[in-house]
Amino acid sequence: MKVLVEKCTGCLKCIDYCSVGALSKVPGKRLAVVDEDECVECGICKRSGACLTDALFQPEMEWPRRLRAEFSDPTVTHPSTGVGGRGTEEMKTNDVTGRYPRGHVGMAVEMGRPGVGARFYDLEKVQMALARLGVHFEQANPVTALVEDPKTGKLRKDVLNEKVLSAIIEFGTTPDKVPAVLETLRRVAQEIDTVFSLDMCSLIEPDGSVPVRDIALKAGATLRPNGKNNLGMGRPAFQFFKEDAQ
Ligand code: SF4
Ligand code: SF4
Fold first, then answer.
1. Ligand 2 within 6 A of CB of 135
2. Where are the domains of the chain?
3. Nearest-CA neighbor of 122 among 220, 189, 22?
4. Ligand 2 contact, 49 CB (< 6 A)
5. Is 126 exposed, middle or buried (0-12, 13-18, 19+ CB in 10 A)?
6. Quick one: which of 63, 60, 73, 58 has its CA closest to 2?
7. Which of 27, 129, 192, 200 is the most exposed place for a label (fewest CB within 10 A)?
8. Residue 241: band (very low, low, confident or very high) from pLDDT cuts 50, 70, 90
9. Out of 3.30.70.260, 3.30.70.1070, 3.40.190.10, 3.90.1150.100, which CATH number does the structure's domain 76-245 have?
10. pTM for this entry
Protein backbone atom coordinates (compact mmCIF):
# COMPACT_ATOMS: atom_id res chain seq x y z
CA MET A 1 0.00 0.00 0.00
CA LYS A 2 1.17 3.51 -0.69
CA VAL A 3 -0.01 6.97 0.32
CA LEU A 4 -0.37 9.36 -2.60
CA VAL A 5 1.36 12.51 -1.37
CA GLU A 6 -0.65 14.81 -3.64
CA LYS A 7 -3.98 13.52 -2.25
CA CYS A 8 -3.15 13.04 1.43
CA THR A 9 -4.42 15.81 3.74
CA GLY A 10 -2.69 14.38 6.81
CA CYS A 11 -5.96 13.77 8.67
CA LEU A 12 -4.41 10.50 10.04
CA LYS A 13 -7.79 8.73 10.13
CA CYS A 14 -6.27 5.73 8.35
CA ILE A 15 -3.63 5.02 10.98
CA ASP A 16 -5.84 3.20 13.48
CA TYR A 17 -7.07 0.82 10.78
CA CYS A 18 -3.63 -0.59 9.98
CA SER A 19 -3.45 -4.22 11.05
CA VAL A 20 0.28 -4.15 11.83
CA GLY A 21 1.09 -0.53 12.65
CA ALA A 22 2.68 0.13 9.25
CA LEU A 23 0.95 3.51 8.77
CA SER A 24 2.32 6.54 10.57
CA LYS A 25 2.60 10.33 10.38
CA VAL A 26 5.57 11.82 8.57
CA PRO A 27 7.37 13.92 11.23
CA GLY A 28 6.87 17.65 10.70
CA LYS A 29 4.39 17.19 7.81
CA ARG A 30 0.64 16.82 7.41
CA LEU A 31 1.12 13.51 5.67
CA ALA A 32 0.80 9.77 6.34
CA VAL A 33 3.30 7.19 5.12
CA VAL A 34 3.38 3.39 4.81
CA ASP A 35 6.39 1.43 6.04
CA GLU A 36 6.62 -0.87 3.02
CA ASP A 37 8.72 -3.47 4.84
CA GLU A 38 6.12 -3.85 7.59
CA CYS A 39 2.98 -3.56 5.41
CA VAL A 40 1.37 -6.98 4.84
CA GLU A 41 -0.83 -5.70 1.96
CA CYS A 42 -4.02 -6.70 3.76
CA GLY A 43 -5.88 -3.77 2.15
CA ILE A 44 -7.81 -3.04 5.37
CA CYS A 45 -6.83 0.63 5.48
CA LYS A 46 -8.24 1.19 1.99
CA ARG A 47 -11.34 -1.00 2.42
CA SER A 48 -12.19 0.74 5.71
CA GLY A 49 -13.22 3.84 3.78
CA ALA A 50 -11.40 6.00 6.33
CA CYS A 51 -9.62 7.97 3.65
CA LEU A 52 -12.00 10.51 2.16
CA THR A 53 -9.54 11.77 -0.45
CA ASP A 54 -8.68 8.37 -2.00
CA ALA A 55 -5.03 8.84 -1.06
CA LEU A 56 -4.44 5.15 -0.29
CA PHE A 57 -3.30 3.34 -3.39
CA GLN A 58 -2.46 -0.33 -3.87
CA PRO A 59 -0.14 -0.77 -6.87
CA GLU A 60 0.18 -4.03 -8.85
CA MET A 61 2.39 -6.41 -6.90
CA GLU A 62 5.15 -8.54 -8.37
CA TRP A 63 6.41 -11.84 -6.95
CA PRO A 64 7.30 -12.33 -4.12
CA ARG A 65 5.56 -9.24 -2.68
CA ARG A 66 2.15 -10.38 -3.91
CA LEU A 67 2.40 -13.27 -1.43
CA ARG A 68 1.67 -10.67 1.25
CA ALA A 69 -1.74 -9.94 -0.26
CA GLU A 70 -2.45 -13.61 -0.95
CA PHE A 71 -2.02 -14.49 2.73
CA SER A 72 -3.33 -11.28 4.31
CA ASP A 73 -6.16 -9.98 2.12
CA PRO A 74 -9.26 -12.22 2.23
CA THR A 75 -10.42 -10.84 -1.13
CA VAL A 76 -7.37 -12.36 -2.88
CA THR A 77 -7.35 -16.03 -3.90
CA HIS A 78 -4.23 -18.18 -3.53
CA PRO A 79 -3.22 -19.40 -7.00
CA SER A 80 -1.72 -22.60 -5.53
CA THR A 81 -4.95 -23.78 -3.85
CA GLY A 82 -7.77 -21.66 -5.31
CA VAL A 83 -8.82 -20.75 -1.75
CA GLY A 84 -8.97 -17.21 -0.33
CA GLY A 85 -7.90 -16.01 3.11
CA ARG A 86 -5.01 -18.06 4.35
CA GLY A 87 -5.44 -20.37 1.41
CA THR A 88 -6.49 -23.64 3.00
CA GLU A 89 -9.77 -25.24 3.94
CA GLU A 90 -7.93 -26.47 7.02
CA MET A 91 -8.78 -29.42 9.18
CA LYS A 92 -12.10 -27.94 10.19
CA THR A 93 -13.54 -29.36 6.98
CA ASN A 94 -12.27 -32.85 7.87
CA ASP A 95 -15.83 -34.09 8.29
CA VAL A 96 -16.35 -33.73 4.56
CA THR A 97 -12.83 -34.02 3.15
CA GLY A 98 -11.60 -36.93 5.25
CA ARG A 99 -8.00 -35.71 5.15
CA TYR A 100 -7.34 -37.30 8.54
CA PRO A 101 -8.96 -40.72 8.91
CA ARG A 102 -9.30 -42.73 12.10
CA GLY A 103 -5.93 -43.37 13.76
CA HIS A 104 -4.46 -40.12 12.39
CA VAL A 105 -4.20 -36.63 13.78
CA GLY A 106 -4.48 -33.38 11.84
CA MET A 107 -2.40 -30.54 13.22
CA ALA A 108 -1.95 -26.92 12.22
CA VAL A 109 0.36 -24.18 13.41
CA GLU A 110 -1.35 -20.83 12.83
CA MET A 111 1.48 -18.33 12.76
CA GLY A 112 1.03 -14.58 13.18
CA ARG A 113 -1.97 -12.53 14.19
CA PRO A 114 -3.24 -9.00 13.55
CA GLY A 115 -0.88 -6.62 15.29
CA VAL A 116 2.03 -9.03 14.95
CA GLY A 117 2.16 -10.74 11.55
CA ALA A 118 4.72 -13.37 10.60
CA ARG A 119 7.71 -13.53 8.27
CA PHE A 120 8.41 -16.60 6.17
CA TYR A 121 11.85 -17.03 7.73
CA ASP A 122 10.02 -17.83 10.99
CA LEU A 123 7.59 -20.14 9.19
CA GLU A 124 10.63 -21.91 7.75
CA LYS A 125 12.04 -22.55 11.25
CA VAL A 126 8.81 -24.27 12.28
CA GLN A 127 8.45 -26.12 8.97
CA MET A 128 12.03 -27.47 9.18
CA ALA A 129 11.67 -28.54 12.82
CA LEU A 130 8.50 -30.45 11.95
CA ALA A 131 10.04 -32.00 8.82
CA ARG A 132 12.69 -33.59 11.03
CA LEU A 133 9.87 -35.46 12.83
CA GLY A 134 8.66 -36.98 9.56
CA VAL A 135 5.17 -35.44 9.61
CA HIS A 136 3.14 -35.31 6.37
CA PHE A 137 2.61 -31.75 5.21
CA GLU A 138 -0.77 -31.02 3.67
CA GLN A 139 -0.38 -30.67 -0.10
CA ALA A 140 -3.39 -28.38 -0.59
CA ASN A 141 -1.80 -25.65 1.48
CA PRO A 142 -0.08 -22.49 0.19
CA VAL A 143 2.82 -22.73 2.69
CA THR A 144 3.59 -26.26 1.51
CA ALA A 145 3.59 -24.84 -2.04
CA LEU A 146 6.56 -22.64 -1.02
CA VAL A 147 8.67 -25.55 0.21
CA GLU A 148 11.85 -25.90 -1.86
CA ASP A 149 13.08 -29.14 -0.29
CA PRO A 150 10.36 -31.47 1.06
CA LYS A 151 12.96 -33.50 3.00
CA THR A 152 14.20 -30.58 5.08
CA GLY A 153 11.12 -28.34 4.93
CA LYS A 154 13.27 -25.48 3.60
CA LEU A 155 11.27 -22.73 1.88
CA ARG A 156 12.18 -20.85 -1.30
CA LYS A 157 14.87 -18.28 -0.51
CA ASP A 158 13.13 -15.43 -2.34
CA VAL A 159 10.09 -15.47 -0.02
CA LEU A 160 11.82 -15.61 3.37
CA ASN A 161 11.64 -11.89 4.20
CA GLU A 162 8.02 -11.46 3.11
CA LYS A 163 5.66 -10.57 5.94
CA VAL A 164 2.03 -11.69 6.16
CA LEU A 165 -0.77 -11.23 8.66
CA SER A 166 -1.03 -14.95 9.31
CA ALA A 167 -0.17 -18.25 7.63
CA ILE A 168 -0.93 -21.86 8.48
CA ILE A 169 1.49 -24.79 8.47
CA GLU A 170 -0.69 -27.88 8.23
CA PHE A 171 0.24 -31.52 8.57
CA GLY A 172 -0.90 -34.98 9.50
CA THR A 173 0.76 -37.40 11.86
CA THR A 174 -0.03 -40.37 14.08
CA PRO A 175 -1.08 -40.10 17.75
CA ASP A 176 2.25 -41.53 19.02
CA LYS A 177 4.13 -38.60 17.45
CA VAL A 178 1.98 -35.90 19.08
CA PRO A 179 4.14 -35.55 22.24
CA ALA A 180 7.28 -35.05 20.09
CA VAL A 181 5.46 -32.47 17.95
CA LEU A 182 4.39 -30.55 21.07
CA GLU A 183 7.89 -30.65 22.53
CA THR A 184 9.40 -29.47 19.23
CA LEU A 185 6.94 -26.59 18.95
CA ARG A 186 7.66 -25.50 22.52
CA ARG A 187 11.37 -25.35 21.67
CA VAL A 188 11.02 -23.59 18.33
CA ALA A 189 8.60 -21.05 19.88
CA GLN A 190 11.64 -19.61 21.67
CA GLU A 191 13.43 -19.08 18.34
CA ILE A 192 10.79 -17.14 16.41
CA ASP A 193 9.68 -13.52 16.51
CA THR A 194 5.93 -14.08 16.33
CA VAL A 195 3.08 -15.93 18.02
CA PHE A 196 1.23 -19.07 16.97
CA SER A 197 -1.68 -21.17 18.04
CA LEU A 198 -1.81 -24.92 17.56
CA ASP A 199 -4.84 -26.82 16.28
CA MET A 200 -5.41 -30.56 16.54
CA CYS A 201 -8.17 -32.70 15.16
CA SER A 202 -9.02 -36.38 15.16
CA LEU A 203 -12.15 -38.40 14.67
CA ILE A 204 -14.18 -39.19 17.75
CA GLU A 205 -14.13 -42.91 18.50
CA PRO A 206 -17.45 -44.85 18.44
CA ASP A 207 -17.38 -44.94 22.26
CA GLY A 208 -17.21 -41.13 22.37
CA SER A 209 -13.56 -40.89 23.38
CA VAL A 210 -11.06 -38.59 21.67
CA PRO A 211 -7.65 -40.31 21.90
CA VAL A 212 -5.60 -37.29 20.87
CA ARG A 213 -7.15 -35.24 23.66
CA ASP A 214 -5.70 -37.52 26.35
CA ILE A 215 -2.31 -37.69 24.61
CA ALA A 216 -2.12 -33.90 24.40
CA LEU A 217 -3.16 -33.43 28.04
CA LYS A 218 -0.56 -35.97 29.18
CA ALA A 219 2.06 -34.04 27.19
CA GLY A 220 1.18 -30.90 29.15
CA ALA A 221 -0.93 -29.09 26.53
CA THR A 222 -3.73 -26.76 27.58
CA LEU A 223 -6.74 -27.48 25.40
CA ARG A 224 -9.52 -25.13 24.41
CA PRO A 225 -12.13 -27.38 22.82
CA ASN A 226 -14.10 -24.45 21.45
CA GLY A 227 -13.22 -24.82 17.80
CA LYS A 228 -15.39 -24.16 14.79
CA ASN A 229 -17.76 -26.76 13.42
CA ASN A 230 -18.33 -26.58 9.70
CA LEU A 231 -21.26 -28.90 9.21
CA GLY A 232 -20.65 -30.00 5.67
CA MET A 233 -21.76 -26.83 3.94
CA GLY A 234 -24.04 -28.84 1.69
CA ARG A 235 -21.48 -31.49 0.83
CA PRO A 236 -21.95 -35.15 1.73
CA ALA A 237 -20.08 -36.55 4.73
CA PHE A 238 -16.89 -38.35 3.89
CA GLN A 239 -16.96 -42.07 3.15
CA PHE A 240 -15.57 -43.13 6.53
CA PHE A 241 -18.83 -42.19 8.22
CA LYS A 242 -20.66 -44.57 5.94
CA GLU A 243 -18.09 -47.29 6.71
CA ASP A 244 -18.47 -46.66 10.45
CA ALA A 245 -22.22 -47.03 10.17
CA GLN A 246 -21.94 -50.48 8.59
S1 SF4 B 1 -2.45 -2.60 3.53
FE2 SF4 B 1 -2.73 -3.40 5.63
S3 SF4 B 1 -0.67 -3.49 6.48
FE4 SF4 B 1 -0.54 -2.18 4.67
S5 SF4 B 1 -0.80 -0.11 5.42
FE6 SF4 B 1 -2.84 -0.83 4.87
S7 SF4 B 1 -3.72 -1.72 6.75
FE8 SF4 B 1 -1.48 -1.47 7.05
S1 SF4 C 1 -6.87 8.92 5.74
FE2 SF4 C 1 -6.10 9.49 3.70
S3 SF4 C 1 -5.82 11.68 3.79
FE4 SF4 C 1 -5.97 10.99 5.92
S5 SF4 C 1 -3.82 10.65 6.50
FE6 SF4 C 1 -4.62 8.68 5.75
S7 SF4 C 1 -4.04 8.67 3.58
FE8 SF4 C 1 -3.84 10.80 4.29
1. no
2. 1-59, 76-245
3. 189
4. no
5. buried
6. 58
7. 27
8. low
9. 3.30.70.260
10. 0.90
Summarize pLDDT for 93-141 with one digit per residue, the tens.
777 778 888 889 999 999 999 999 999 999 999 999 999 999 999 998 9
Gap from CA of 189 to ligand 1 centroid (Å): 26
d(CA 201, CA 236): 19
Candidates 106, 118, 93; CA nearest to 40 is 118
Q: Say which residue, 147 or 225, is predicted with more confidence.
A: 147
Strands, DSSP E only, in the chain? 2-3, 23-25, 32-34, 56-57, 105-111, 118-119, 136-137, 147-149, 154-155, 163-164, 167-173, 196-201
What letter represents residue 40's amino acid? V
- Measured distance CA(240)–CA(243) in Å, rounded: 5
Number of H helices, E strands in the chain: 7, 12
Q: Tell how far the Cα of 14 is from the centroid of ligand 2, in angstroms.
A: 6
What's the rounded Cα separation, in Å, for the pair 9 and 167?
35
CATH assignment, 1-59: 3.30.70.20
Q: Do domains 1-59 and 76-245 have the same CATH topology?
A: yes
Measured in residues, the chain has a length of 246
- List Cα–Cα distances, 6 to 3, 25, 46, in angstroms: 9, 15, 17
State the closest ligand 1 atom to the C-alpha of 21, by its place in the atom list counted from 1.
8
In DSSP notation, 50-73 reads: --TT--EE-----TTTHHHHHHH-
Contact between 165 and 20 under an 8 Å Cβ cutoff? The reply is yes
